[in-house]
Structure formats: C-alpha cells, structure tokens
Amino acid sequence: MDLEKIKTLIDFVGRSNVTELSVTEKDTTVRIFRVRDQLSAEEGTASPASTLTSLASATAGVAFETVTAPVFGILHRTPAPGEPPFVQIGDVVEEGQTLFIIEAMKVFNRVAAPRAGRIAALTDVDGAEVEVGDMLAEIAE
Description:
There is one protein chain. This protein is 9% helix and 47% strand. By secondary structure, it is mainly beta. The protein has one domain: CATH 2.40.50.100. It starts with a helix and ends with a strand. The model is unreliable at 37-49 (pLDDT under 50).
C-alpha cells in the first residue's frame, strides 16, 4: 500500500465519525484509530481527534495487544523534557518496560508494556490529557 493511500485514509478518519478503520491490501494491513475528540472551549467546536500512528503490518494475521490509559492525567512520552521518547513505532519492547508516564495530581504513574513485542501503533498525544481507557499503543507479536 503506498503512502498517498495511507494519508488519504488518515484524512478520511479525521474528517468522519469513524473511530476505527482497518484496510488490507495484498499482505499489508493498515489500522487507523480515532482515540478521542476534544471540545475547544474558545471556539466551541470539536478539534481534530487524537490519533494513533500505525506501522503497517507486512504479515497478515498478526495479533495485537492494546495498551490503554489506566488513569486520567497528562500523558508524557518522554522521561523528561528534551529527552527522547520512551518508545517509538517499530521499537521492540520487553514485558514491564516503561512506555509512558501519566501525571495525575502530581503523581507520576508508569505505564508498562503488558508483554514483549514490537510497537505497532502509538498515540500522538504528548503533554496533553488522556482519559481512562484511551488507546495509547499497540504491541504486535
């Protein structure tokens, strides 16, 4: 599947009420998610949804484990400002490895990988609020 087609699919999900889209072409599957909508207080209109950036799977039938936010708070993808993120798409992680930190009431909650695998999808949220259950990442076998 070419990059232009993937961009078109992402734009479609961003403009529509679709919350999840999975498209398979030959042996490549692309999954696009809308994690949540936010209401802009200044404008009174819905802002673009947070999305997961996905890594297209070259293998059909790959099992994914979803990592969701366990608490409401501010998501941090890096251990400290100016440092690289804990993980990026394509990284291989071990079970228990820190993927994110969620700050809630000045308490920093570590979000760990539930199993070993490769990061297949990752939220674009960083330094903004997440709700309990918001999808943060997907780990592929």
